[in-house]
Amino acid sequence: MISVSVIIPCYNRESIIKDTIDNVLNQELKPVEIIVVDDGSTDNSVEVIKTYGDRVILITQSNRGPGAARNAGLKIATGEYIQFMDSDDFMSLNKLSVQAEILQKTKADIVYGPWVKVWISSEGIRLQDVVLQQKALPASNTPLKWFLRDWSMVFQQCLVRRTVLNEVNGYNETIYSLEDADLFVRLMLLGATMVHENKTLTFYRLDDFGKLTESGLNKARRLKDQLIYYNLLYAYASSNSILQANMGNMVFKKKVSLLLREIGPEILEKEYEYLKGIKLNYYFYKLLDLCQQKKSGIQKRIKGHRWPVCFQAGKLSFANRNQIKQLNWVLLED
Q1: Each residue of 266-275: b (16+ CB within 10 Å) or e?
Q2: DSSP per residue, 5-31
Q3: Contact call for residues 187 and 147 (beta carbons, < 8 A)
Q4: 10 Å Cβ neighbour count for 119?
Q5: Helix (H) or strand (E) holding 112
Q6: What is the pLDDT of residue 210?
Q7: Within 10 A of 167 (CB to CB), how many other CB atoms are there?
Q8: Which SS3 state, helix, strand or coil, does residue 239 take?
């Protein structure tokens, strides 16, 4: 039998956690368990979660961040496949069934599908612009190389084999943001295989109802997380020639250069050994950044969005519109 565990971290979401849990309960393929990890909420989130009784496994812990919350759920999960859901996001009702069947047939480690950024209100749902990842990543680069250049992903759009998550020891709990990015890189370095599907849709909510990766994170903390993340990448690359080669592209170097310029050299003197020796021409990469912004602005006027080609972006399909109707939402269009 196909078994899926759904893990949902929660922090101060009493007003919307019910909607997310209901969305999971209404899936065509019922998960073997729904694990909600409350990360030190100070509102009534725990009381709302308890109303589900034994339909939801509740874990409570002090506020330790999204990585620690997901790891707590992963530690007790029994499903063959893991669906990480944020406490404000939604998925089409066929997502678990479609993606689990694909993993069963292909023996891949990760399946990823289309996703879209949205605002949701009592009036209905409004898209930010277009649906992302309607097609697979272009074969001209590996997923890791795309990721270090222009691409990003969210684990909500994926279903992941539990064994590979355990092999990399889950999330890095020292960072509150970019924890998904670090996990993805380590999965790729492990050799995890990916396959794409285009029959589901994941809804990434833009409204901020206390996101674990948003609330309480000031600029200093975000900069620190970026420092830790890039320092980790260079540490991984020191023993991995493939990663080292992929990090040699200009787009990646631009990101590092702009970050190092923003934080100043005095911070690097204290730690971050792998970043200390990096010398990048800031003015060159700043010019490159301005050129890329100009190019994306032109693309916005022509195509209606700024997403690079790797995101395979496009308008809602007929199937996507039906998926929105199945969730009893009204689609608000400009």
Answers
A1: eebeeebebb
A2: EEEEEESS-TTTHHHHHHHHHT-SS--
A3: no
A4: 14
A5: strand 110-112
A6: 47
A7: 15
A8: coil
- For residue 319, give the nearest of 146, 212, 163, 201 by alpha carbon: 201
For residues 117 and 139, give the distance between their C-alpha atoms in angstroms, rounded to a whole number: 25
β-bridge partners, 265? none
Query: Encoding tokens for residue 231?
Result: 């320092």
CATH code for residues 4-210+311-326: 3.90.550.10
pLDDT tens digits along 8-62: 999 999 999 999 999 999 999 999 999 999 999 999 999 999 999 999 999 999 9
- Residue type, position 68, single letter: A
Q: How far apart are CA 60 and CA 72, in angstroms?
A: 9
Torsion of CA 186, 189, 192, 196, to 10 degrees: 80
Domain positions in the chain are 4-210+311-326, 219-301
What per-residue confidence (pLDDT) applies to 208? 64
Give yes or no for a contact between 315 and 131, defined as CB atoms under 8 angstroms apart: yes
Strand partners, 9: 37
- Contact predicate 332/124, CB 8 Å: yes
Give the per-residue pLDDT at 266. Answer: 78
> 5: which strand partners?
33, 82
For the chain, which ranges sit under pLDDT 50?
A: 210, 212-216
Cα distance between residue 293 and residue 274, in whole Å: 29
